[in-house]
Design brief:
46% of the residues lie in helices and 5% in strands. The protein has 162 residues and is mainly alpha-helical. It has 2 domains: 3-86, Glycoside hydrolase/deacetylase (TIM Barrel, Alpha-Beta Barrel); 91-151, no CATH class. It has a two-stranded parallel sheet with strand order 1-2. It has a two-stranded parallel ribbon with strand order 3-4. Helix 3 (38-56) packs parallel to helix 4 and helix 5 packs parallel to helix 6.
Length: 162
């Protein structure tokens, strides 16, 4: 979660968490991390970590997802200092451009493979595409999971594959 969003919408964040979703760090104000000083980059990640703990009680976060996928070595090092691994997506819905939901479903379905991490935002496009994306994944025999589950060596094997 973006820390500024979490600050503005703690009740929504709690509802998301209550539904069993993994909650992780997406910086505080969605900056281009590679353009920040070391101190500013540290503050972006650390401030959000503190909010995750104080607002949601998240004490076991393992992930930092750099906004816009923008990062450099310093970003990765700072995240690591804070106990976080840097993670990116493998498929982008580009939902912020508001494409039709059926186009997003078709794009994801065509690119979906074991271990895919799909970038989605809280947009009407993603909301409307979600059921179709889930159906496409299940039709291919894939299990849905959190980032931690997907990146775990213990993740569920794809049906019919070894």
């Amino acid at each position: 979660m973006d820390g500024s969003w979490l600050s503005k919408y703690p009740d929504y964040a709690k509802a998301i968490q209550k539904r069993g979703h993994e909650i992780s760090n997406h910086a505080y104000s969605h900056p281009d991390m590679s353009k920040l000083s070391r101190s500013a980059a540290y503050q972006q990640i650390d401030k959000t970590e503190k909010l995750l703990r104080s607002v949601l009680g998240v004490t076991d976060n393992r992930w930092f997802a750099p906004p816009s996928g923008d990062y450099n070595q310093t970003t990765v090092e700072i995240a690591a200092e804070l106990g976080l691994k840097t993670v990116l997506w493998t498929i982008d819905t580009v939902d912020w451009k508001k494409p039709p939901a059926d186009a997003v479903v078709a794009k994801i379905s065509a690119k979906l493979e074991p271990g895919s991490l799909i970038l989605m935002h809280p947009t009407s496009t993603s909301r409307d595409a979600l059921a179709g994306i889930i159906a496409a994944a299940k039709k291919k025999g894939y299990a849905l999971g959190t980032v931690s589950e997907t990146l775990s060596s213990r993740r569920a094997p794809v049906e019919g594959r070894h």
